Amino acid sequence: MSIEIVRKRIPPSVLERAAAERFGDMVKAVVDIRRRIMAIGGDLHADEETLLLDDGSQQADLWGVNLYPATSGDDWLEYDSMNNVRPSQGNRSRGVENPTLREAIRAVVDELVERL
Asked: How far is CA 79 from CA 29, 45, 55, 56, in A?
């Protein structure tokens, strides 16, 4: 699977296929919280981020996450990416430290990914 921009709701099978092709149980994704889209399917969050930037996204709106399609509950979404280290935006770790921002990311992912 090549990197693709998700603009409308996708079934779980899309993430399952992407996981199987790359990391087995995980899919890297970059979420644009302003445009309410995300990129999936890359080996690196940076590759997905580049695609979104080329598509018109702004750096400040992009956040990296990992999705575990076979995992249930809240643990299926992990806020962990080197792209999230942004001291200028008050985020000094690979995680997303601001709870409001985490909720915004989760809302976009929930809109775009159908869960069983």
From this structure: 10, 12, 23, 23
pLDDT in tens, 16-53: 999 999 999 999 999 999 999 999 999 999 999 999 99
Inter-residue contact 78 to 109 (CB < 8 Å)? no
Q: What are phi and psi of 24, to 5 degrees?
A: 90, -60
Domain boundaries, the chain: 4-112
**Chain centroid to CA 100:** 16
CB 40 within 8 A of CB 3: yes
Distance CA 7, CA 35 (A): 9
Band (57; pLDDT cuts 50, 70, 90): very high
